[in-house]
Amino acid sequence: MFHIVQYQPLRLITQNSLSSMCLKLMLSRPVAFAEIRKSWFSNHSLVGNKNIILMGPPGAGKTTIGRIVGQKLDCPVIDIDDDVLETTWNISVSEKLQDVGNEQFLEEEGKALLKFSASGSVISLTGSNPMHAAGMQHVKKNGIVVYLDVPTTVIMSRLKSMKVDRIVGQSPGISLKDILQFRKQFYKRWYDIRVLCGGDIAAEVVAEKVLDAVKRYQNSELETFISTRSSRSGRSMEKDSHKYFSDIVTEGLAPDGGLFIPERGLPKFTAGEWQSLIEATYIERAQVILERCIHPSDIPASKLAEIIGTAYGENFACSKIAPVRHLAGNQFLLELFHGPTASFKDFALQMVPHIFAYCIPRSCNYLVLVATSGDTGSAVLDGFSRLHDTDKQRIAVMNFFPEDGVSPIQKSQMIGCQKENAWSVGVKSDFDFCQTAIKQIFTNSDYTGFLTVEYGTALAAANSINWARLLPQIVYHASAYLDLVHQDIISFGSPVDVCIPTGNFGNILAALYAKMMGVPIRKCICASNENNVLTDFVRTGVYDLRGRKLIPTFSPAVDILKSSNLERYLHLIANEDGQLVTQLYNQLENQGHFQLQKDLLEKLQQDLVAGWCSEEDCLAAIHSVYSTTGYILDTHTAVAKVVADRIQDRTCPIIISSTAHYSKFAPAILRALRIAEINQNPLSQLHLLSSYSPLPPVHWGLLETLKKKGNEDHQVCAADMSMLMSHIETLIQNHFM
User: Fold this and answer.
1) Which residue has the higher pLDDT, 708 or 59?
2) Domain 316-339+468-708, CATH 3.40.605.10 — does that match?
């Protein structure tokens, strides 16, 4: 922990004199800097004896910001260029570079860094220091590396105004922009903390952001999680039982039956920080956003980068990951189906298994349980089957789906995605039964305790009740907005609406969270199919399941009556009143309905509007869009398109979430396109669709999965809790014992 003290100019002059005097000693041999200044500054510790090390490209402002941070902390400031290199070489850095050339310069610069030692100081690195691995390893041992992340276009403008015409690595035929882009890989390798720095941000503001970031880095206890059903008084009594990100990833559901949420809410980004991401790739945006949502003590930035790169690297067919495509008028499609299993679930479930494997203790086996209404199952199975072999030995997944409540291709896909650590079980019931059964299993402490004691196996959840599932979804809603800005469709700050086919409320909740974090989303439009309980709720404030029966539709992923993630949103608008949330959900469980107070309904309707779509209108929309554009919507996207057409006021762009690839619902698509003879074989259906040369093409991953032999084998279970628990035990015995 460090203490911020008032800036005292006379004292600073004395400090800087001391710094200069001591640097000569440090450069002759490594000296513990804290020992020299011990009697002077023992009351003003930074972070113990650690240094704050500022890193970034030339022109990032490291020297200026370092001085301001040093002033605020009342501690020595060391500039590697001025205080180390030029003192060592007795010539200017630019002269040295001209004399020895790029490669030799990097080597000699690195050697100088290896001889350098300091503690309790603010250190401003050169722009090229991170390119010398040994030197960086040495300096990082006793410091927190803060990356000043400035957009390349801003750096180039600054260097031009500074009349800098050459930096390390530049040579004929290699542009300044190329060098700056090349260097990013080295900056990303070494930093502990990132600070986003836009174009017009003052150095004083950046310095404050650096201090805030270091405080956050040192105080993981501030980022704890609570249950949506916990009371404020209960929280104060449970200080010793804090839950952190790595805890809630493995636990999934809170012990009281509620859902985990961050106690202090989500981080807010300034307009300038969002604007600094306009030129960034999808993977870069994901890294920045998730770093702010996941504390580095849970997952360090370097590990998070590795996980994101693995999730969104070669597994997605489109290099843009989540491209935004203009559909017609003011409507844009956010294509979320380019992952390996052809639905938006891939965004979370290519990442969550790796997060899970990193966070869980090595001393226990884990069985991940998931219930699916269609797309989640194959995405979970595929994601967990891509783990390293050592992780697959201790982590398995069991997927429960309604045997007769998913499309034929979805079913074939779930069965085809089964691997040595991943299984599917068809349940003779609907999705709501599957989801409720899993919740009951998690809250049955006798049963979960038995599994732990008897088999050394803990249960975990991969449904959107798991907080880690929601975070990657926030990223693509934010990225879609930034893409519209990047394409000059809108200027930053202009509002957009989003329309999302909604069943379990996870996807639309992620959009609401993106809005809270500073993305200028005006309204979130909740699009239902004929299972329109959410539409009625948004319009009236009454959540009523009495007399409702689930209706199988062409859009099975939103064939849901009990929307789990709605609980998180109600907790938010109820000012974190866990007692009220508990009361509402107890009433829903016991009486089949609840009603929001008027003030809460008014809050809800500031964020949400809703509509629903009939089966006939869904198919008509698919036919109409294909006839006019050649583009094929899937059935869920068609539901959203119909609702968007009815509700939007056309005063701003509307982004429609295209949550699945049409290939998954071939029979309905062929019917919508009015093709009379439909072969019942799923593979034949996809070949028929492909013959129409549609936009986008038939999904590659589905074709590969359906071509595999032996896709017919899977277990089927009655809608009985004891039967489900028996299946779980059998799997544990077969895989872990």
Assistant:
1) 59
2) no
